[in-house]
Design goal:
Layout: H1 10-31, E1 41-46, H2 53-68, E2 72-77, H3 82-90, E3 96-100, H4 101-109, E4 118-134, E5 149-151, H5 158-169, E6 179-181, H6 188-193, E7 199-204, H7 209-215, E8 220-222, H8 227-236, E9 244-248, H9 254-257, E10 262-274, H10 279-291, H11 293-297, H12 308-311, H13 321-329
Parallel strand pairs: 1-2, 1-3, 5-6, 5-7
Antiparallel strand pairs: 3-10, 4-7, 4-8, 4-10, 9-10
Helix pairs in contact: 2-10, 10-13
């Protein structure tokens, strides 16, 4: 009888221990590449506006990256949103960013500087267009926005790109038929509550913290965006093909929606980098993005939708080689 493992045979004990080591090894393989020193250095991540999902996701991801790669310094830059993020990444002012697929393709179609260097890391979650007005507003559709003061998002934001397209699809000239205001999620809620604007557009993950906070102090409602408008957008072709008709679930903002869904459109968000970034670094970052879904998702609800099965679909961008390596390594 073994003195080290009393009550069981030495062989069975060693077999059990070996099985345990194998299981532990597999766990480490999923979390961190065995035998590798974590990448180090400094990277710049362009996020979004305060109170927006891009900014919150970026902050949470930085914490996870620091845990996996202690020698890697991640600098976060606020931005107006998708359009500015794409330009920063393409021109080398950022190393990673998040942007909506329509903004990415718009940049590529214009053949702007560095467009060919853009690569995908992961498809993250969908942005939902949210058109917000006071609860007692008579605005019930896009066409009712005529002659109103409407916040259409910051210049160079993804909100601005999609809001202008929606207004035109509804027969509204954004320059003549409304009073356009350049507010984003950081200032729009306060200005709506103060009566300085009549409506504002937002495109972001669900729920967005800036609107969650507004529910506590102000009665507002969402204006539905029906499928006919989406059909008109699709008729434009090009990057408008990334919009899809959907419903904002009643669970997004329960106190506002009161058990009802809201017709709207959605577009996917992509985590992006450039061709010149080290494949090994990208492989590590991709692994962290996938494995930290639940930890980040506990604070950023949209992040719960990050999924290994869909992350590889970064159209219109090709996957970076480092991301491709990771997805191949975990392919069943």
């Amino acid at each position: 009888m073994s003195k080290v493992f009393p009550g069981i045979g030495r062989r069975r004990a060693l077999q059990g221990a070996a099985a345990g080591f194998v299981a532990f090894g597999l766990l480490l393989w999923w979390l961190l590449p065995l035998g590798e020193e974590p990448p180090s250095g400094t990277i710049v991540f362009s996020t979004g506006t305060p109170r927006g999902v891009y900014q919150e996701y970026g902050e949470r991801l930085r914490t996870e990256l620091d845990r996996d790669m202690p020698g890697l310094s991640v600098k976060l830059l606020n931005s107006a949103g998708s359009q500015e993020n794409v330009r920063r990444l393409a021109t080398g002012k950022a190393d990673f960013t998040i942007a909506a697929a329509d903004a990415v393709e718009s940049y590529e179609l214009q053949h702007l500087s560095g467009a060919g260097r853009l690569r995908g890391v992961a498809r993250l979650y969908d942005d939902y267009v949210q058109l917000i007005v006071p609860r007692d507003s008579h605005v019930r559709s896009l066409s009712d926005l005529k002659h109103k003061r409407v916040a259409i998002g910051l210049p160079n934001s993804g909100v601005r790109l999609i809001a202008v397209r929606l207004l035109k699809a509804a027969g509204i000239d954004p320059k003549k038929d409304i009073t356009p205001v350049s507010d984003g999620i950081d200032t729009g809620p306060d200005r709506l509550q103060q009566g300085k604007i009549d409506a504002f557009f937002w495109s972001g993950g669900l729920p967005t913290n800036g609107l969650v906070q507004l529910t506590k102090t102000f009665d507002f409602k969402f204006v539905p965006i029906d499928g006919d408008v989406v059909d008109k957008l699709h008729a434009e072709g090009d990057s408008a093909r990334y919009y899809r008709a959907t419903n904002m679930p009643e669970s997004a903002y329960p106190s506002v929606q009161q058990g009802s869904t809201v017709a709207t459109i959605a577009v996917s968000n992509l985590l992006m980098t450039r061709t010149d970034m080290d494949p090994r670094l990208i492989e590590w970052v991709t692994r962290t993005v996938i494995k930290s879904r639940d930890d980040i998702g506990a604070h950023v609800h949209s992040a719960q939708l990050v999924d290994l099965r869909t992350a590889i679909y970064t159209d219109p961008l090709r996957l970076h080689e480092g991301a491709r390596r990771y997805y191949r390594s975990v392919k069943p």
